[in-house]
Amino acid sequence: MTSTITVPPSLDDLTFEQVISQVAAVPVDEELLVDARRCTWASPYGLTGLLTLAQTRAVKPVFLPPDHDDLAEYWSRVGFFRHAEELYVLMGRIPTDRRAAASTMMVEITKLVPNVAAMDELSGVLTHVNEIFRDSLSLESRTAMRLTMVVSEACQNVIEHAGCSGWLMLQVFNYRKRMGRAVAVLAVADAGKSYWDSNTRRTGLDALGGRVASHNGKLSVRSGTKRRSIVPAWDDDLPLMEHLTPFPGTQLQITIPADILDATG
């Protein structure tokens, strides 16, 4: 028997809970079909979450890509299908894999694994992250470097403590409706050790919260059945969500607004 999971039209850190709720009702060794045909928008959290979902299954799920051609092409450019073909049985019309040229608005999905080759790749990715913070968000060089170190430590947390590979992605969005400026949304996700159950993981990630907050950013960590957020004045998210549907690993989102003040001088 195959159970179908429907991906919502807009897939982000909050609506991904709908996906988790559906998956939780299906035994881990049962066949799964993840239907994203009606999806029209996805955040870095949503895309890395879909890859993490597949890692939690004992049997490779089947995946149906978005019907919306522009969205499917975007997923291809950010490397989603390149990684998904290792985790899913891809069905339907899959766009030709095209590695995106270096972009001032995006860091494509990067696999985080504990080996030398991956560490070398991560070093290049972090250089790109720093350039985006500095050039696309107009951050002062010192501030951009501090925030790049936050991203580096979040990735190292996965590599050193998750016990499995994870994922990184960044995209700059126009956030005019709420803030009147651009924001960088970055996701780091894995299906490994729970944030709450690992003192080492928790200590490492908790230290990042203050640094993100000092630059008017937002940090959310979802693990197990809880989601904790450091919420700036420009957002109305809840600082704590409990009794969520259980989901393996830790999924983290960092949101950094453009042209922020260097609060630490």
Protein model, in words:
By secondary structure, this protein is of the alpha/beta class. The protein has 2 domains: 2-90, 2-Layer Sandwich (Transcription Regulator spoIIAA), CATH 3.30.750; 106-257, Heat Shock Protein 90 (2-Layer Sandwich), CATH 3.30.565. It has helices spanning 16-24, 44-55, 69-77, 80-87, 116-136, 141-161, 199-213, and strands at 2-6, 10-11, 31-35, 41-42, 62-64, 89-90, 106-112, 166-175, 181-190, 218-224, 226-230, 240-241, 247-257. A 7-stranded antiparallel sheet has the order 7-8-9-13-10-11-12, sandwiched between helices. A 4-stranded parallel sheet has the order 1-3-5-6, covered by helices on one side. Helix 5 (116-136) packs antiparallel against helix 6 (141-161) and helix 6 runs antiparallel to helix 7. The protein is globular and about 55 Å long. It starts with a strand and ends in an 8-residue tail after the last strand. The model is unreliable at 260-265 (pLDDT under 50).
Quick overview:
The protein has 265 residues and is α/β, with parallel strands linked by helices. Helices cover 36% and strands 27% of the residues. The protein contains seven helices and 13 strands.
